[in-house]
Amino acid sequence: MKKKVLIIGNSPSGYSIAKKLSEKYEVYITPSSDMLKEFVTCLDIREDNSRELLEFVVENSIDMTIAISQKAINSDIASLFADNNQAIFAPTSKANDIVSNKVFAKKTMYKLRIPTPKFGIFEKQNFANDYLKNQKIPYVIKTNESNSAVIITSQSISKNILDMMFAQKNNKVIIEDYIYGTPFSFYTITDGFKALPIGSSLTYKHALEGDGGQLTSGAGSCVPNYKISFEHEYMIMDNVIYPTLDYLQMQGNPYLGILGVNGIITDDGNIQILGWQSFMQDCDADGILNNIQDDLYDLFEACIIGSFSDEVDSVNINDKNSVSVVLVNKNKDNTENSITGLDNLDDNISISFYPSVHKNKYLEYEAGSGSVLVFTSFASSLAKASDRVYSELLDVDFKGISYRKDICKYNI
C-alpha cells in the first residue's frame, strides 16, 4: 500500500513537490486548485487551521505532512503535530522567525557576524529620515512583510515610501545598502543539527529585462548558479548555515526542514547574505527538486525521526541544468483568458501553476491575474536550457502575457 503524504501550500513550489511525490506516493494537498486536481487529491481546509488539518491526518492515517505555506508554519502546525505524534516536515514557528521576521534575521546576522549589507532598523520615522540624510543611493527599504522591499534610486521618492511603510501598524522599517553583484539562492535540508546542500540558483528578482522595474518574489532562475564555487559553498555552510542552526538550537528552537539563504556574490567574489528561505522559491522549485536523485520522502523522514545526522552523508544531485521563467498576466480583464500552446511542449519542459489558473467549462486553462505559471526547461547546459525555454515559449499565449526575455541569456 502506498504511503500517504499531505502537502500544505498550493504555490508552484507546492505543485512541484506534489508532482514529484505523486509518482510514488498517495498525495493530498490543501488548498485546492484546478491544476492540482489532475494528479493529487485536493482538500479545502485553510492552511492555518492546524486543528482541522490534524484531525484529517489522524482520521485518514496520513504518514507524513509537509508544510510549505508560511501561514501554516506561522500557525505553529509543526509543534501541534509533534505533540500529537504526527510526522511533519516543517520548522516550528519560533524556528521560522529566522525566515518570517526580517528584523530578527538582520539582528541574528549581526550577532553571528554573518556578512550582510549595512543596515538600520527603525521604529520611528524621524529617526529613519535622519539616517537617510547620509545614505548613498541606491538603497533598499523594507518591512517584515513578504515582498515589501523597494529599491530607492531617488531621494525624492524615499519619503513617500517611508510614509507608506510607517503607516502600517506595528511595523519596523529596515534600511539597508544595495549590493551590486550576482543574486543567488542556496538550499539545504536539515534536521536542526546537520545540514546538507541540495542545490543553488541564480535568481532574477526584478520584473523587467536588465534588472529593471520593481522587485518580485522571482521572475526566473537558473539552476545551478554557475557563479557559486566550491569555496563559496563551504563558506556558506561554515559561516552561515551552521552558525544559524547552532544559534537556533541554543535558543531551544532547532530548525527542521528546508533552509535556504538568499544573497549576493559581489564582483570581487565575496558573499553578502540578504535573508533566509523556509522552502524553495517558486521559480527555483522545479529545477532544484528534479536534480535530487534520492527519494524525498526518505530524506524528510530521516530528519523527522532523528536518523538524518547519523545515517545520511550526502544528497545525490544530478548534473542537469535548468532555466525557469515566470509568466505573468498583466491584463486587468480576466474573462475568457485561455492559455494556448501547452499541449505539444518538448519533453524537457516542466510547468508549475499558480493557484490563479483554473479550468473553464470547456476544460481549457484560464489565466487569472498576476503570476500564472513557471515554465522550466532542462538541458545539458544552461545556454541550451535558456534557448529551449524561449523557443517553446513562442507557442504559449494568453491575454496580458508578460515575462522576462533575458533569463540566463548573457554571461553564461
Helix content bin:
25-40%
The fold-level CATH name of the largest domain is D-amino Acid Aminotransferase, Chain A, domain 1
Measured between the Cα atoms of the first and last residue, the distance is: 46 Å
Top-tier CATH class of the largest domain: Alpha Beta
Low-confidence stretches: none
Q: What's the main sheet like?
A: 9 strands, antiparallel
- Tell me the domain tally: 4
Q: Could you state the CATH homologous superfamily of the largest domain?
A: ATP-grasp fold, B domain
Shape: globular
Query: What is the C-alpha radius of gyration, as a whole number of Å?
Result: 21 Å
Mean pLDDT: 92
Number of helices: 13
Q: How much β-strand is present in the residues? A: 25-35%
